[in-house]
Amino acid sequence: MPKKYHIDFKPVPPRFTPLGKSGVIDFREGCTRCHPCAKKACVYNVYDKRCFDSSTMADSIDYLCKNCFRCVQQCKKGLLTKSVNPEYEKMGDEYWTPEIISTNWTQAETGKIPVSGAGYGGPFSGPGFDGMWTDMSEIVRPTRDGIHGREYINTSVDIGRKPDRLQFNDSGDLVSELPPLLELPIPMMLSYPSFGHVSEKVRLAIAMSAAKLETLCIVRAEDYHESLAPHKQYLVPQVSRETLPSFIDKLSGHRAIEVIYDRDVVALWKELKQKHPDIIISIKLPLDGNEVQIAEALAAQGIEVIHLHADDHGNEIGKSSPRFIKDMVRKVHVRLVEQSLRDQLTLIASGGIAMAEHVAKGIICGADAVVIDSALLIALECRLCKNCEKHRPCPVAIDHVEPHWGSQRIMNLMSAWRNQLLEVLGAMGIREMRRLRGEVGRSMFFEELEADIFGRIFGERI
User: Fold this and answer.
1) How many CB atoms lie within 10 A of CB 76?
2) Were both Cys, which of 294, 346, 394, 446 would link to 125 (CB 3.0–4.6 Å)?
3) Coil, helix or strand for 424?
4) In Å, how far are 11, 103, 107, 415 from 111, measured between CA atoms?
């Protein structure tokens, strides 16, 4: 049994008052100061903790309030009421919704799984990952409870190429040359976001998190700074044919690198493998409609790792009617299985991984691991206002974060996400993360169900 893995989390309060979903409106005129006051009855003591953050013009009670409505119901004069916070509704976009941002804020602050006493309030079907359901039939077995159960659940994954067979000599000694292989304790790698005020301090915070989590962090060669060097064994420099010459002398000490795909990438891969046989080389391949054929060709050539990436919303790149990442990764996985190539290499997926459930669903679709990027900014209090893209100052000064503070927030987020993965695996009756890969028989896809049930009736409209 592998060593039991644990992520150290601890509460890390935000630097700025987060935006809450709804606010308390307190009409003080008419208050008779009756006893007991409804405000004193608040079990979360939000009225005692209440303050006003002048830097963000936010009332802390909007974030602290748990929306139990006890104070609203108990005020004898009816002076307390609740209203939706318009600033909250402006956060993010149609994919990175305010609910997702707020949930990730809570997890980055506490390191714990958010629990709602009112039950699940999200969609049961919809676009993207919302149209994918997982089988939780084993949840009736308490010993398989992911966090508190007695059965150990392993979340480790392998990164690298595996031989299709082993050869031994007459004496029973292994004579096959084994390629380099890394074992990560979690199926989540980190990466620097494609937008945002990603300063040297932010990069250092993410690199420190990768080292503490014992996972890998992808960093573009042009963003590599000497301050990151102490964590180089956890860093994966991302290079292109143009940037590689200036970085070739810095590869020592790295266990893996990533090369951006071009038509001659196999020749470049062979050249690098000859010079650095112990370094795992990943090929970053865009999900743009050509990924299935290219991935098959790369796998047949002996490529170790293929990183399939979509855009920040998980959509196909450069298409007016894009497919979603779950469908594209699934097609690549299935093609490699059909060609008897899948078990020999590692598939990594990135783009649109916004919640813990997206990690599990991405792996079910065929990935070995996923890459977390934009969610890391949210852990650092990002509101996805995109002021950075308009060359405006960040409202929460992300570029000035203290690296140790930021690192702990990211670790808290990953701890909460991993615990949710344990819950999913436990509810499925699976004790090994590697077994989840491609396990589509333990899931249902709404589009396919709809087509099977109503396709004959409505034809092409489904």
Assistant:
1) 9
2) 446
3) helix
4) 7, 11, 5, 6
One CATH from 3.10.310.10, 3.30.70.20, 3.90.79.10, 3.20.20.70 for 157-451:
3.20.20.70
State the CB neighbour count (10 A cutoff) for residue 181. Answer: 13
Residues 6+ apart with CB under 8 A from 135: 428, 442, 443, 444
Tell me the CATH number of domain 22-90, given options 3.30.70.20, 3.90.79.10, 3.40.50.300, 3.40.50.280: 3.30.70.20
Question: Helices then strands (H, E): number in the chain?
Answer: 14, 16
pLDDT in tens, 179-208: 899 999 999 999 999 888 899 999 999 999
d(C-alpha 147, C-alpha 356), whole Å: 15
Handedness of CA 60, 66, 67, 73 (dihedral sign): negative
What values do phi and psi take at 418, rounded to 5? -65, -40
Over the stretch 132-160, which tens digit does the pLDDT of each residue have? 988 887 766 655 556 666 678 899 999 99
Do the domains spanning 22-90 and 157-451 agree at the CATH topology level? no
Overall pTM > 0.85: yes
